[in-house]
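Task: encode each sequence below as structure tokens.

Item 1
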Amino acid sequence: MTSVLLAGLRIHVRRAPHSASTAVSLLRHHGTRRAISHSVVKGYPTIVFSFHQDSEGGEILGSTLVKPEHAVISTFDLFSIGVGPSSSHTVGPMRAGKIFITDLQELGLLDRVQTLKIVLYGSLAATGKGHHTPQAILLGLEGSDPETIDCGTIPSRYEAILTNKSLHLGGDRRIHFDMDRDMLWRWDEVLKTHPNGMRFSCFDGNGDLLATNEYFSVGGGFVVNEKTKVDENLFYKGVDKSVVHGARLHQTHQAEQGDPIHPSKDDDPGHPPYPFDSGNSLLAITRKHNLTIAQVVHDNERYFELSEQDIHEKLMRIWAVMDDCIRTGVSTTERTLPGRLKLRRRAPMLYRRLMRGFYPGIGIPATHLIGPNSSMSAGAVDAPEGMKTSQDVEDGSVSMPRDGRSRAALVTGSFDHAVLPMPPRRTNIPAVDFLSCYAIAVNEVNAAGGRIVTSPTNGAAGVIPAVLKYIVEFVSDDPERSIKTFLLTAGAVGMLFKRGSTISAAEGGCQAEVGVACSMASAGFAACMGASPETVLQAAEIGIGVYFSEDRSDFPPFRSRLFVF
């Protein structure tokens, strides 16, 4: 029994005496660049051949060694739409299941599958039941995607699988599946790549192994394995490989020193226009090109073959899901969260208390408005001494500078750009209770398995939507510009953490999720208040710094890997 690794999937074939020729013939048949591997079932040695074939001339090309590069990934890979309650234990496993079935379909093996075995390791096995990991994997194997699945059908579909002991692979192939027999929990065993490991194996009618693969859910919905860790965004999104820009398929920011990467002669992805790998390098780019952080990230997105309209629509889509999540959380009529503990929902009651006394249909009272026409305006900038505006002088609130001239506040960034810079401003935060209510609402929707945006993970999904909602409702005079500025700036900080450390709680503890989200939201808020890039990164550093308390024993590993600022 030998195996051929195609698309990261070990395809087991018989005819062991001709294993090498079989591998190459399969490679030529599929006409794509694939890594080749020989292995036997678990417990036997594995030998990896690091060669692949050029699609045109049939030439066998040697692999090269990759060096870790920039931190730039797509903002729309970092902020992804999924389902609760966990990005690493729900979203990631669902995508892994869909990837496995998609590969079986592409390789023509799905019709031969009779039985399927699933093994969960480490953290996935220890806490998977509470995080809906079994539901996620099984529905992913049935072809569902976290971004498009109807959240309301998840409980009934899962119950039907358990009751009927039947699994509809990819929506095409129905097989017998016994949950007690075919899903194994190895909570005391951790695979070496990551604590959140899982292995899928499928067999034919004779019990022979057809294909197997291991996947690792590394946080934020990202899924990797030995084949895909240098181009994780392709496999993380589960997107159509034929229509994705090469730069998103071959990013090497997750690779370790010496990892093999297979070069392409025809499709060199190159680099985005403004690659950065640390806060210092990002700051240097903003200074050199007179751009805000949001403008830098926006121009990098253009490199992924997205038009300005595409970027705008995708950002608005992310915000729409966040906003709808908050609305669902504060307006639900359900009194408790799912589960045996029957925890009481707090967001609806808090929101009703905050809205008590407001006239229905009129909107928020003027005392909560922040803008140039309100009595508590933050639009009128309190500039440094000697830089007060003429409006302030007319009101008699300040005196003219000694030279008799008024000067505008300094604005950082390019005005000839699709994302205009934000002018400096201040706010007294008069409605901070709303911010807390918004965050609780999102967390409760996530806990109930509802539609969510990983920002950057589900476990910390309440922070960024709540702060952005607060900005839109109580601070901004131009909501669309604020939304784009906030998400693009927060995305840049999230990219730095993902490269320099981790966003997985299984690796870095709570600060890897909530701490990173707090840092991202702090940066986004500062950017929307017109802060300079230096101040934005200082806000991000303060945001993560509050999680480095001396009485926490789980911080040193995270801190030692934090090469961000």
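Item 2
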Amino acid sequence: MDVDNCMQGGWLKIVYVVFAFCSALFLGALKGLLVGPIAGLVLIIGNVGVILGLLPAHIAWAVYTIIRTNRFDAPLKVAILIALPALFGIWLALSIAGSVIVGIGYGFFTPWVSSFEAFRHENQSKRFFHCVVDGTWDTVKGSCTMVRDFADLCFHSYLLYLKELRESPVSNEPRTLRLIHVPGLIVVGLLGLIVDIPSYTIIAVVKSPYMLFKGWFRLTHDLISREGPFLETVCIPIAGLTILFWPIVVIGSILFAIFSSFFIGLYGSVIVYQERSFRRGVAYVIAMIAEFDEYTNDWLYLREGTVFPRPSYRKKSGSEPEYSVGRLGGRLSSTSGEAPAMLMPSLIHSVSVREAINEVKMVQIWTNMMKSCEIRGKELLDGDVITPVDLCEWLKAKSGNEATIIGVGLPCYCFLQTLLNSIRSGSNGLLILDDVEINHLNRPKDKLLDWFFNPIMVLKEQIRVIKLGDNEVRLLEKLVLFGSNTERMDAWDNGSSVPQDSLRAAQIEGISRRMVGMVRSASKLPTYRRRFRQVVKELIAHASEKQDIARCNSMTSTSCAEEEQV
């Protein structure tokens, strides 16, 4: 009897999962057909409007920057100006095509995925409600948010890049170009497009069937053995959607390979310029085919190596930049500076939802960073170190180069406090809010994060090695918050003092400059400005509330005094 009940319960569970999957699939498709065109059009029209609307300004700013900068000599400036029409033509074609693809994919598939994510709720009524509602209005708002982030990237980040290029220190050695290398630059650039684009396309298309069936095999194996995303019952519908949409993932990987081959092919001109050799530029074009083939072999667990030739295109075998660690004498290499390859989903055994929680996600780092800015900002506001006027000036600023006390100083001050807390606690990585530690084991496996994480670890080690005193820490806080604003630095009496040792003072100033540079680089990333703008608004609300409380206290004390006189 018990066996029959167990079998009946098992069949009911299977029927429930199948019915839930089919229902979510139907509702997702219906929402995709209703909401997808609206959200897709918002994203496409918005992005294309930003691209075309800012194109004249982009061209004017680029020409002005190339003429004014002291980083390039006259022949190199002429070469860049001649190449600008082709570069902007490629930008227009790829950005508009990318906006269309992203708009269609986001508009139609986000409502679908949202319907399956509703099964994460424990209550049955909540599951049904969110399965119907999620992915409708949120998708449209998400399209508007993506357009806003893209506009910030094209306007504020682009201007900041150009301003840094114009105002680069005179001490930096200008980059020169000999006219004899100009034909080589053009030929290798065209050769890279002619050779790498078809090669990448052929390799991606030929290996796509293996990626398709290998992915299906891995996901089906996890389904049968209840591993990875199939470990929890509520996640089975989502994992089923993954199996159903796996061909779309494969097609997306092929498109990304073709898209990236444009930039990889054009990078051959940069190799010719850097190495001052036409032969090495041609070697780069050939070697990139082998690099891509080996990269895809590794991800798909095919044979090791590649059948294509891989000639050397660098004079030195170790061309990666290194970051010194103060007096330790050690070196930490940065990530490889080679051109990127194909975006390939990993086909290794998946981790379960519970296991994935232990990994620090990129969105968690962003959220934590902004929360830290809000907390530290409120502390500085309460201490009258920064004022509501500073916050309003940043909101009114037309570019990231204005109101630097809030735009650069505040996040840099929070960054410094994070480094100091990590050093005091003896952490091997970064200790952020809620005692979450980011280290080499649990950090997000993201190429973009590698550009920041390794230098941050080096900077942290430098601060730890020189063993700053309390007065020196206070001086460093002033430097990162106010920068070159000596008037505001003198007005903040935090107990700091300038070291008598000139070497010590130079070390502290060097650390502050590196921190400011890292924060400026992070501020150019997508979504940063929108998130930080919300933090500034929260700080303004906090300042207004503080002023209202002070006004109420003042009125109360005045009324009490009048009553005593009566």
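Check on item 2: The longest strand covers residues 322-324. Confidence is low (pLDDT under 50) at residues 317-359.
End of task.
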